[in-house]
Amino acid sequence: MQIKLLAVFAFVLFVLVGLNVYIAYINIKSGDKYARQVLSQEYYDSRTIPYRRGEIRDRNGNVLARSEKVYNVILDCYAVNEDQENYMEPTVRALAEYFNLDEAEMRSLITAEDTKESRYQILVQEISQEEKDAFEEGTDSSAEGLSDAEKEERSNVQGVWFEEDYQRIYPMDTLASSVVGFSNDLNDGIAGLEAYYSDVLNGVNGREYGYLNEDSELERNIIEPENGNNLVTSIDMNIQQIVEKYIAQFDAEHAGGPVEEANGKGSVNTAVIVSNPNTGEIYAMATNHGYDLNDPYDMSGSYTQAEQDAMTEQEKSDALNELWNNFCVSDSFEPGSTFKPITVASALETGAIDENDTFYCDGGEMVTDRYIRCDNVNGHGMLTVKEAIQNSCNDCLMQISFQLGIEQFCEYIRLFNFGSLTGIDLPNENTGVLYTRDAMHEVELATNSFGQTFTCTMVQELAAFSTVVNGGYYYQPQMVKQVLSENGGVVKSFEPVLQREPISSKTSEILKEALEMGVQYGTSRQAQVPGYRVGGKTGTAEKGYPRNQTDYIVSFIGAVPINDPEVVIYVVIDQPNVENQADSGLACVLARQILMEVLPYMNIPMTEDITDEQLATLGITREEAEAGRITETEAPETDEYGNVIETETEASATEETPSTDEYGNVLSTEETPSTDEYGNVLVTEETEDGNIGANPDDPVAENPNVPAPPDENQEEQLPADSEVTMEDLITQ
């Protein structure tokens, strides 16, 4: 055994000695060559070739976001130091001349111990193609007409090369900023569509591998990048511009109002959505809090530099998130009377009421131990179902909801998707907060029936109202129509998503007639669009709890033409910067101004005559009524990248007209007694404690007996067998 072990040991020792001898032989013969190849890997290991993030376009192909190729200037110090005596000064002079770099800093970088052998030093980032071409042309030694000295100078410019990169550009600056959003330098979407579709817009980086071959020559292997896909949105740039123009005009008109929270704007929040009720496509979505997508961190429009400097990091983060917030999808509020068509549609669909039923309004209803008043404290008298919508009668709506019952009311409010995400393709969608079946009682049912003491978002109300007027079909709201490859091929198409049919076409027809009556004769008269059949509903809701009869959200939602709707518009004005915040006529007028330009642009033909009586009611001239029809609606001129060359649109001048109320009555500048819609002088005596207030479209005033909206932080509102959890209802 010992002899065998000694033999094995001797054999292994012999092999190791042989290997050492062979390694020594290789080192003597080719050691320098292999050393250069190994060391070269430090410099030529690999380089990332960035992909191009996809474009975001409107439905007509206009570019809203794109990535533009830029270049980083890279210095190869090792290459310059290979012949420092000849290469150093020409290279430094060229860099200083074309990129305004400091010559002393360049010499120090090239000769410093820690960088002299570096092959990758970034000198300048994101230069343009023109700047790159100018440098290459200015250092081209083969150019004609050069002297020998100039040729030698240029040929000695060594070690400078250009690395491709991309910069995100938003050609329309602030247009649709809350929808488009933006991405950072790492191609991470931060807000809007840029965030929601970040994975679709992003591609895959390529790689360039470098190494020295056996002859010490540099070899390169390139894997090309895969560029991102392009988005075609449902947004129409022209409609978006019209909407934003009138929001800006509203801000300018009411900037000097008394509401401090408005910060010099027309309201704390003004938001508008224009959509197709038959598909769920959004044509325009805007607020009065747009920001420059090319400089999204600029808060100078809201804060002074001193205020910004005094902010903590958390305060800056909160301020930026508020700036980037999209009110239309991320904020919930009490919808007010715009919800009434949902209540009536539900009652008709279940058979709880018939369209020929009548209800008597005597000014309010006693619900258990509380008296809830109608907006008309004197009472509307006997009303049909349609007239209840026309006159926005809270008393009738409460009676209708009692016949519908808590169980069916809760069922249908869910069928219309309140309390749930709509699924719109935008980030940070809110669900709103509803009462559960067990948490709802008679008082909550009464106040919920006319859109108070629960919350929803604009997109929820928009989708539900569209269902009411489109024949009963609930479509998921959507922002994107197609995903295209970089070559224009269709990767994916987004067809309209029909989720359910909460009501029948018969019920829809009844509601459309009622909504048209509301615009023709009721509370929404200021929303009439000359030449078109409009149907819609106003809304007014007090903010906060307990009620203070001070801060209001007013709104209007309508469809045109109401007999066969092609467009739905929803206008919400959160705390208008005016003395009388409860004036829903403000939202009606804003909707009318937008529609007067949008409808002709969409080639929706007029079907009605424009009468002098109607113009007098609206307080506008015939010229103003016709102005929208001659607005330039041709496709804007674009450059080779699809960017609009001229985007500025001047708001058409309007003649000064007398101030009118929401019904078109000219307001006197002298103090006059308050009257109801029939001209009766209202008694100004204080009401008894325990009554619920009487503001237009909003009977809920400060009162300890009035139910607050469900508290999203109180879990006891949700019984153990509830269909949803508290997490489902908490504001996202």
Automatic annotation (TrEMBL):
Keywords, alphabetical: Cell cycle, Cell division, Membrane
InterPro entries attached to this UniProt entry: Beta-lactam/transpept, Beta-lactam/transpept-like, PBP_dimer, PBP_dimer_sf, PCN-bd_Tpept
GO biological process assignments: cell division; cell wall organization
GO cellular component: plasma membrane
Record keyword Cell division present: yes
Annotated Penicillin-binding protein dimerisation domain residues: 49-216
Coarse class of the protein's main subcellular location: membrane
GO MF annotation, one: penicillin binding
Sequence similarity: Belongs to the transpeptidase family.
Descriptive protein name: Cell division protein FtsI
Annotated organism of origin: Candidatus Limivivens merdigallinarum
